[in-house]
Amino acid sequence: MRSYPRINIHLDTITENTRQMVTACAAHGVTPAGVTKLACALPEVGNAILAGGITLLADSRLSNLKKLQPLRAQTLLLRLPALSEVEEVVQFADISLNSERVTLQALSEAARALGKRHQVIVMHDLGDLREGGFYEEETLSLCREATRLPGIELVGLGTNLACYGGVEPTTANQNQLLALARQVEKENGLHLSYISGASSAGLGLMMRHELPAGINQLRLGASLLMGIGLNDDPVPHTRQDTFQLEAEIIEIKVKPSVPVNSTALDAFGNKPEFVDRGLRRRALCAIGKQDVDIHELMPVDNQIIIVGGSSDHLILDIDDCEQHYEIGSTVKFNLSYGAVLQCMTSEYVYKHMI
Ligand SMILES: *Cc1c(COP(=O)(O)O)cnc(C)c1O
């Protein structure tokens, strides 16, 4: 049965993107982790990433890591564990990113109670101002605590960039992380397995040969799944056409482009504004703002104009289209990162894996 709206997911493209990135990273001494959150950790997507040569799967949400359990890959929890979930973190994640002493203590207790060892990467904030201690002394002290606690093992130092503050990964800030990592190693007499410098946003630096030697992990999501990195720019050697949204036309009518006697607010409490293009042929599609931010949709047929929408309808101007559309035809859209995220999350959008 055909089921719309649907998001088409090209698994072989994800595998190929992954393979390309694993190879590119290997040339720079980097072993990437594969981040599945954009695809809500669909096991098929996890498998596509593993097939491309990655062995460590990472996700922000514990519920997503649970979904990946049957794949039997190594797992990394990207978002700091909540105190309320430490038992499950120890159960379902091999490694977690951390920045709080009480959380480390709780993880330690949970690990001991479960007779497990849990690995932690301590996060340091290099100015992007999301997670991690901002002061080096704070991070050094947390690392000392991590080595002291039973049941947990300090295995790395990491930082996150280009997420909240839009701070770019640079040779300078990566060197700062590296120097701090060496200091942690020296102070505690240990070797850190992971120096985790950035997300896909760090690939450009790496490919320009400007990532300092010693940074040995990048956490890659957008680049594997969508072929994009810093500023959503395409990453060399990857494809950007993994995901496409397909919606079905349920009405085609010729109508004026300005509503008749418009005075009230629209369904979202806004005063709508209209461009008068005269009488136009319009198509209604069965998808709406409840599923995706319609301004983030890019019609593959570039003669289509997105006019607007409501919770459950998308209104298109198809007057200029050379392609013939009829009731039951489908319209394809390319998607931004945010739009893929929404479509993957919406239970109303069928996940069509190819
Ligand atoms: C989402 C996330 C990533 C992956 O980012 P991409 O831009 O998708 O590569 C890496 N690290 C952390 C901590 C994240 O939350």
Rounded Rg: 24 Å
Major sheet description: 8 strands, mixed
Shape descriptor: elongated
Question: Helical content, roughly?
Answer: 25-40%
At CATH's second level, what is the architecture of the largest domain? Alpha-Beta Barrel
The end-to-end distance, rounded to whole angstroms, is 15 Å
Q: Could you report the average pLDDT, rounded to the nearest whole number?
A: 96
Count of discrete structural domains: 2
CATH class annotation of the largest domain: Alpha Beta
SSE-based structural type? alpha/beta
Fill in the CATH topology of the largest domain: TIM Barrel
Contiguous runs where pLDDT drops below 50 for at least 5 residues: none
Q: What's the CATH superfamily of the largest domain, by name?
A: Alanine racemase
The molecules bound to the chains, other than polymers, are: pyridoxal-5'-phosphate
Distinct helical segment count:
10
Binned strand content: 15-25%
Total number of strands: 16
Order of SSEs? EHEHEHEHEHEHEHEHEHEEEEEEHE
Give the helices and strands, then pairings.
Layout: E1 6-9, H1 11-26, E2 33-35, H2 43-51, E3 56-59, H3 62-67, E4 74-77, H4 86-92, E5 95-98, H5 101-114, E6 118-123, H6 136-148, E7 152-158, H7 171-188, E8 194-198, H8 203-207, E9 217-220, H9 222-226, E10 243-256, E11 279-285, E12 297-299, E13 305-309, E14 314-317, E15 330-335, H10 337-345, E16 350-353
The chain binds pyridoxal-5'-phosphate.
Pyridoxal-5'-phosphate (PLP) is lined by residues 35, 37, 60, 78, 160, 199-201, 219-223.
Keywords: Isomerase, Pyridoxal phosphate
GO cellular component, one term: cytosol
Protein name: Alanine racemase
